[in-house]
Amino acid sequence: MRKFIISIDAGTTSNRSILFDLKGKPVFSSQKEFTQYFPKSGWVEHNPEEIWRTTVKTLKDVIQKAKKLRGEILNIGITNQRETTVLWDKRTGKPVYNAIVWQDRRQEEFCAKLRKQNKETMIFNKTGLLIDSYFSGTKIKWILDNVPKAKKLMSSNQLLFGTIDSFLIWRFTKGKVHATDATNASRTMIYNITSNRWDDTILKLLKIKKNILPEVKDCADDFGQTHSSITGKSIPINGVVGDQQSATIGQCCFEPGSLKSTYGTGAFVLLNTGSKKIYSKNRLLTTIAYRIKGKTTYAMEGSIFIAGAGVQWLRDRMKFFKKASETEKIVKSLKSNNDIYLVPAFTGLGAPYWDANSRGVLSGITRDTSPKEIVRATIEAVAYQTHDLFEAMKHDGLRPKIVKVDGGMVMNNWFSQFLSDVVNVKVLRPKVQETTALGAAFMAGLHIGVYKSLKDISRNWNVDKKFSPKMSRKLRSALLEGWIKAIKRTLIN
Fold first, then answer.
1. 114 and 48 fall within a common domain
2. Which domain-ending residue is among 195, 217, 242?
3. Are residues 345 and 405 in the same domain?
4. Is 275 exposed, middle or buried (0-12, 13-18, 19+ CB in 10 A)?
5. How many helices (H) and strands (E) does the chain have?
6. Are residue 62 and residue 117 in the same domain, yes or no?
7. Is there a domain that residue 440 lies in?
8. What is the mean pLDDT of each run of 10 residues along the chain (493 residues)?
């Protein structure tokens, strides 16, 4: 009988469930998109009930496929968009407000107040994070301050907080388990990454009671079982990892110095720093890469808010093409970028700028500018932003020599080559592109002994294609000079 592990990948724009064999090869996948809500400028929300429905639908599809293949499902791993915040009623399970998405900027004014109160150093030292509305803690505070029911429920010990993983676990177990893992906890801005505990000082500062918070477990751990009324029969949940850390695991970046970059809705570079926390002097984040059997491995992270979301904007709002895959043909049709630059600061800028108030800028346009140039500028911008992160890492004394890439954008060969040219580093694309989902499956498998160690897991990673820098130094410098000018036009602070 074939044996499988299911990975639930709860993303920013869609939910997927993927059936993996024990060698880490995807066998079957089911995906459902869900609605993005933009109530005000800079606000981004999801309906938690829609997230739940689409997750259950995809999971049932995958379970059905496993039955047809006469296979045995061993367990489930969950990976998720990280900072997105849900608060719900403990008694009814109903959310008190929409999920506030990681991209949401509504708490920037509050964050500015905290900075003026000189809280940034304290919070950075404890959490590895900068004060920003990106993180869950500020989102919790907004709901508590603006939804009267939430504060009332918290006072009576009937309110629960979770990132999407916690919300799904709670629902799958019918309220028996309220838990998250160390990687998701490390993205809340209320978790001390040294003591591996919720931080009392920061909780007091944000007026958040500890009774709403989930238990924090290892990435490979027991997170309860799905209720048979939902999945037919109970299935253990044994792996939980935030999406970018999960991609790091899926890319087998287990050695200090190894680095991966994921190009999904946003783009995220994570560099493994081992048991050592390295605090950036260049506005990068320190975070937990994974925690296994109580041992914490750390990473340095750079976050780009808009990557694939820029391509979505071109497709859905600008109507420049019907399918994202068309972008490769479009960019190849141009000999150069014609000095057109797009800074996609649609929800502000992430690392290393951290400017929540900046907005997108298209520069260099002339009467000859066509949609083709704008498409190319949007694609190029992702590589330029990655270069900014690499430069920040270099200034912190870390010099990446190889980057493992994944995500929808890297299937565009032109982009992968351009990325290698701009960052001037060899780029490796793996055979299995579902690295985010794969990382959670690996953790679930590790917990039950399918994989004996991280070294054992690494044997399942294989390269699909290598991209090496080909661009002249002169051209690279000229392109980056144009990008720097465009960034300066964008920055508000």
1. yes
2. 242
3. yes
4. exposed
5. 17, 22
6. yes
7. no
8. 95 94 95 93 94 97 95 96 96 96 92 95 95 95 96 95 98 97 98 97 96 97 96 96 95 94 90 92 93 96 91 92 91 92 89 84 92 95 95 88 91 95 96 93 97 95 95 96 91 66
